[in-house]
Amino acid sequence: MVVVTGGAGMIGSALVNRLNELGEDSILIVDHLTTSEKWKNLVALRYTDYLDRDQFIEQLEAGTLTGIDTIFHLGACSATTEKDADYLMENNYRYTLRIAQWREKNPTCRMIYASSAATYGDGEYGYADDESQLEKLRPLNMYGYSKHLFDLKAKREGYLKSIVGLKFFNVYGPNENHKGSMRSVMNKSFSDVYVDGKISLFKSHRDDYGDGEQLRDFVYVKDAVEMMIWFRNNPSVGGIFNIGTGSARSWNDVAHAMFNASNKPVDIEYVPMPELLQGKYQYYTCAELNKLRSVGCDIVPRSLEDAMTDYYHNYLIPEKYLGDE
Question: Which of 35, 118, 220, 283 is the Cys-Cys partner for 307 at CB 3.0 to 4.6 Å?
Fold first, then answer.
């Protein structure tokens, strides 16, 4: 059995969909649905059972869950603006630690967990997934710190010799409609571009970056999933790895790709960045993939333009979810 925590989320449901395509449906989905709309991500998927996150960790530690081959631990609060530090410590750090401690007692189970590029902070020390540099990193927000804290713990305890932490960069794609303000710009501004024919981007508050020229490593969720499955299929590999494209693209590039996918002329308005984000905003991120390539993962992510065409034409415009194709 494969366990996917956060299985109703964007990355989790995309992973389950891909496993279904590969013929697997012995899957336990773990999440915390509450009143959100992310249940819609599950409708087209095949899986054995669903457990709430609290039920899962209780049953896991009690030993009532057996036959687990792999745990993809993706469940977390991913809101970079979340202010409740106690909640983030419990939900993102402590919960991950409990799974890792269980896994130490059950070493035949593969554990692959989600870290985050937010752990890199302002990028002062670069974006190399070098575990020897972990202690130098300074995340800019509590979300990033809650992820970084487990990376540090996993290193100290020696877990990284056998488990895998994945530092996801800017993941976007199908099944993110439920994420509210944490949706990608590609999703949030879809109606603005496709219906209204215009888009708003943040102005730059740094002299070395023009408006809309802030850079990100945008990785399509389907490509991120292929990398995750590669790690499952290569159980001898352990450590922390970046998940991205290895290419930094500007928000202006994103806007142009959106207009092209929508067959609309480009119309961009630049608006002031909210004070809440100023000082905590990453102006440049780019995944270094040398380590990923060195262990044999040679998956080539699709371009921003190709991904946007797939996302818009096959999902956003027809209003479909993964598995509905």
Answer: 220
